[in-house]
Amino acid sequence: MIICNSKWLGEERHSHATVAEVRLCFEAARDEARGIPVWKCGWLLEGRYDDGSTFAYECELPARYTDERGSYACTGGHDFVPPQVRMEQGWDYAADEGEAYLLRRNGVDAVAMNGGSI
Fold first, then answer.
1. Mean pLDDT, rounded, for 73-96
2. Alpha-carbon gap, residue 10 to 46, rounded angstroms
3. How is residue 8 annotated by DSSP?
4. pLDDT score, position 35
5. Which whole-number Å values give the CA distances from 95 to 44, 112, 113, in the listed order?
6. What is the distance between the alpha carbons of residues 40 and 76, in angstroms, rounded to a whole number?
7. Which of 80, 82, 100, 106 has the fewest Cβ atoms within 10 angstroms?
8. CB of 15 closer than 8 Å to CB of 2
């Protein structure tokens, strides 16, 4: 672990696994000081214990708005498009093939939660 003292989000000291994460943290602190909103990404990721069981944890990489309508993305590639924008563009997220079928049946393009096709 690498101890970081960027003071991003008011945290005096915290740790990161890689030098790249430390750089992202310092960039987030710099943007925050400039008045640019930056927050920890809340996307849930899946981890695995040694016995094969799984657990969920938050991404926590820096996230920023990507437009004035509320879309945002984190430096790890997770993004969010507000429901109003998705509706105007004619698409929505689907968690599985069943949900995708229902969306398509109503004339809405289905997109997987990771942004790919479903």
1. 91
2. 27
3. G
4. 94
5. 14, 6, 6
6. 11
7. 106
8. yes
